[in-house]
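BUG: 3D viewer hangs when loading the predicted structure for this chain

Environment: internal workstation, default settings.
Expected: structure renders.
Actual: progress bar stalls at 90%.

Input used:
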Amino acid sequence: MDITPVDTIVINGRIATMHAPGEFIEAMAVSRGWIVATGSTADIRALAPHAQVIDCAGRTVLPGFIDSHCHPDMHGARLGRWTDLSQGPDTMSELLELVAQQTRDTPQDAWFVGFGYDDLRLGGYPARDALDAAAGGRPAFLYRRDSHLGFANSGALAKVGFDSDSPDPPFGRIDRHPDNGEPTGLLRETAAHAVVNLCQSEFTTEDFIAGLQRVFADFASYGITSVHNALASTQGIEAYQRMRESGVLKMRVGLLASGREDALIDAIIRSGWRTGFGDEWVRLTGVEWCPDCSTSGRTAAYYDPYVGKKVIGEPEDNRGMLLYEAGDFNQRVLRAHRAGLLVGADGVGDRGIDFVLDAYEHALRHHPVEDHRMRVEHCCNVTPSILKRLQRLKVICSSATGFAYDLGDAYIRNRGADAMRYMWPHRTMIDAGIIAPGHSDSPVCHPNPMRGIHALVNRRTPSGADLCADEAITVFEALQAYTMLGAYAGKEEHIKGLLTVGRLADFTVLEDDIFAMPHELLAETRVAQTYIGGERIFDRANPS
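Structure tokens produced before the viewer hung:
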């Protein structure tokens, strides 16, 4: 590689290349966004005495984190249109007062839509008539944090035509009170999506652009430099291209095009685009479908029924639900796979993961590809039989490590403590040679990778609940899940994931030494600065 001109040097660092445990360098030289030399501070200074200097002052430096499954596009668009409930209120009375305040002076047909609703924090869902009263008869909808369930009041149910006589939509459920058959207000999967699709039908590309800048500024503060935008929407893809052209895109984006948009998948296949199309800023990673659901919301597909407290109207023998018919799903996967597209599909419970693996096995039988890198997204309940299938099929376990931290207590309540032995079993997967990158599924969980890293190393929830200590891994291995393995899952390991010559100069400078600090404090690890291509996109000391 031509190393001239070197425009930036990074010096006086404890730079973890992530090539091997304990491998650190002092300095790097950067040319046009790429690492072109590494070595001692003295050597790199001598190489480019007039270059811009980034002095790390002895701090630990890591490759920029890769969140290999998150939803920044829809999150960004909703930020400007809906009410974010992820950080509060914390009580039902406060929630109803918020709805009342925000609807008091609005037209009678104006919607209140809150997203990021956390029934675990709030102790459940409101009574339908209570939400009716708070909204003054206006339609109101509370979209659960997992994007698989939502609670609709009477006005919202009427807007989508759901009443006591309405059948459940395909692959969805309208929960009903057992005493009178009336909808309780809780909608599952496609029933909830009917409301969501109506409410976001007026979103514009400008909504996405404005919101994405806010989302990515937040991500940068946690050392994230690349994302795989799961279920990437048509408007989101347009927004990324416009941001790239105008110079406001400050995050590298891999697109997992949304299988919920048949026209989008058809257009990608018809165009001949294949995985890897694009550049180092916006790249087509593949396509994604969502056949499985939410464990914390008690809809993910398991062979054994859920345990713990049921909500009113929940099925008696609840084993979750799948969102596609097997034959149809198999053909969707095969068509995309034949077209040269990496396929990702959501599998959470053991039954859901097997459903996805059945489709992958079908596709590989009809169209064998050695380096296919098919991914099971979330891939939580990896039982011994599933582990063997992942090994045999060489499928990536795109692991929802953020769930372990943010939702671990809910998993214990809904599946039982013994089931944690096979939830996110990274020690076993690493030993078996299974590639298992980590992700947040943000905004479902907090985007900070340190939370997932904490859970992988400590195997404890924030409340102290046990997630099976036998599956604990090292700090280095946990960091690999957010760097090298994330790059591999996007077919970008040749340009990302390590701080070595020939790779992008995407890195984060930590305020804390993550390799030396007590493990129980890992979630509190702070980022000092974040760089993409040698350009600073976050500085804690000088926030923009």
